[in-house]
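Re: [help] complex structure
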Amino acid sequence: MATKTSPLSGFPELLPAARSVERAVIASLSDTFELHGFANIETRAVEPVDVLLGKGETSKEVYLLERLQKEQGGSDAGVGLHFDLTVPFARYVLEHAGHLEFPFRRYQVQPAWRGERPQEGRYRQFTQADVDIVGKDVLPFHHDVEVMRVMVEALDALPIPALSFQFNNRKLIQGFYAGLGLPDVVAAIRVIDKLDKLPAEKVAELLVSDAGATPEQAQQCLDLATIRVADTSFVEQVRALGVSHPLLDEGLAELEAVVAGCSAGERRHVTVEANLRIARGLDYYTGTVVEIFMAGYERLKSVGGGGRYDALASDGRTTYPGVGVSFGVSRSIIPLLADGVLAGSRPVPSAVLVAVTDEDSRAASDAVAASLRARRVPCEVAASAQKFGKQIRYAERRGIPFVWFVQDDPDGGVSHQVKDIRSGEQVAADPAAWTPPTDDLRPQVVTKEHQ
Amino acid sequence: MATKTSPLSGFPELLPAARSVERAVIASLSDTFELHGFANIETRAVEPVDVLLGKGETSKEVYLLERLQKEQGGSDAGVGLHFDLTVPFARYVLEHAGHLEFPFRRYQVQPAWRGERPQEGRYRQFTQADVDIVGKDVLPFHHDVEVMRVMVEALDALPIPALSFQFNNRKLIQGFYAGLGLPDVVAAIRVIDKLDKLPAEKVAELLVSDAGATPEQAQQCLDLATIRVADTSFVEQVRALGVSHPLLDEGLAELEAVVAGCSAGERRHVTVEANLRIARGLDYYTGTVVEIFMAGYERLKSVGGGGRYDALASDGRTTYPGVGVSFGVSRSIIPLLADGVLAGSRPVPSAVLVAVTDEDSRAASDAVAASLRARRVPCEVAASAQKFGKQIRYAERRGIPFVWFVQDDPDGGVSHQVKDIRSGEQVAADPAAWTPPTDDLRPQVVTKEHQ
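Output below.
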């Protein structure tokens, strides 16, 4: 049927062993989210174009859908593939609000699509994992701490390099700028967001030219933006800059609570920082903001991020504030797989290959397989009754650790033997009782130190 | 951000409790497939249009992708969303053949898209579960029996109404027609495929007018097509029609093996039949064919199907024969959810709501939740420190069965109590030891007899 291959740039596909790693990552994330009471939802892949463009800035990256043979005025006119999971979630909340209980806690792991230029970590189809809490009219601040902690725990459980959560707070920035008397706070935030790309003196110049700051104000903006600590000592450092404003007080208290709440407890490889230059470009954040970076992969920029939005959705009568954070599954995992930092231990679920002595006795091998499966041991029966050496190599090529032999005994019975093909050890075994070591039961994620 | 809702016909979305049912169905299917050694893969959502149109007939249903702001000659020109999982799988096999071991056993659970008119069980976006085995150059027939048995076992484990697997074999039909001396075997298969929609006498007329049959041959075609039995007695019934041909013999032997193999063992609600009118419209089937029907939902037509294709894919040098079967997850599950035959026991993963006495003691409630989660009990902490009666109703509305109370003792310590809000029973409990009954731990699939 298919007659030629067509690799498409920006649409990565995983081989089975790598896919088992991606599935393990998604299962681990889902497990943590559910332990915290977040319900999974799946939204349709398409949204009306006006919903997609409501978010602004990303319009050029949207893929529109068109029927190959359109009916005139078809109802699917004007739909496109979603480019993130936040826009469809906001629409889902509005569409189904009457059937949801608020605060509504959900997680979502799905692909999204952007027609941008592909590069490492940036794909045209990519999978994200989002976790959000949405309220109706109000959403208490403590949910900011909660949802960020959940993502810290979820990512801390993954077999990936060290991650840094870098937090800031929009109220803190805006309050500081307002207390400073900056004439255009929004323009100033846009300029400060360029600190990653431009030297500090250039940013100071832009603050003067584009945001109407005095040189002294510009310097204080830079002083604020260069505060970066792994504890709550940023509060004192900000206070020392001598600016005061009620919104600044609120932002400081919130950021302090988020940093303290996310730092509490033992962590394997996630660290938490206050980094006061983090702004996040998107205009709808109104409080907590976060970006997540992966050690050794700073070139990918952030592998996740999110924050508080006081108006995730609104239907005119009711406003739905939300707080959430997104993790780029494809963006982080695919480069780790490509670099060999992560690998799957084998490309097949089977822990056992049941050998076939000859085609006439295939049923005996099938019976052994059924017996193993009844005790939840994944296995397969050899495709053909080749010489045992060839069947062992068949297992070897698939990384299947055990081969099972069923042989007729001289006395008319049947004897069973199982061979660990790594050690060569072969022992008698009972198909109704034998179980492989736990580590061999399912494909494992193999990790290697990143060089 | 989002400001209006836009329900889209043909793009169904599930509320969280219903989604938990869909997830349970997919997890159960995946579990069976993996126990049989099938590896999961995920293919990209898009394929080049020429790959999509290679299959013929369905061209008008394809959704093309277009960039909202196209670059000239962009590399994503001419791609569309896949309309099944077979075409992308065939392309995946060709593209990655050098990295796969054959026979290659894979399953795939993903959405597909068709721009057809929506109706019950037919959606523009729908999820399918496919399981296939693909060989390189050759694929022994016993894999036909194997893959069909795997789907029988997988569907037998689902909490859905009774299912009927109806098998036939293309070789049997073609051999019978050839032995009969029909001049145009392909045309005759097309006509016989209309037996669902047209009365037998009309089909007989078409066999004469469109397939060049004599009235006697037409009658024998009808006699063959009306054979339908739940065992292997069809072999005798076909033989009694007095037609002979080597291909007929082969088809009879294969169908007998499939029906016998799939009938073996205890089944909960799956039955197996030979139904000699099943042809399946698609031209690429070359042996075993199957359609799956759900009791009480015959109006959906088949909820699954598949078969053997001797040339799933070919790159000119190598041909990849395959055998597989697909189950329509959306097609079957969404109508069952809509009819209340299936439901989720609750819309949230949480088994416990930890009440909050006052905002100052939220940390004590958080600590209880952490302790429960450490023992894998999904829970959430109340969103606000309302009166306990309100917090209990908060749990009730979400179907959370248990509410946990943390209260200061007169002696300065803390006491813990857990209330089953269904029975009203409240007992002292230790957060480091208490566990809910297993059935309450996770949302369950609730089934109701279909009326």
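The first strand of chain B starts at residue 39 and ends at 40.
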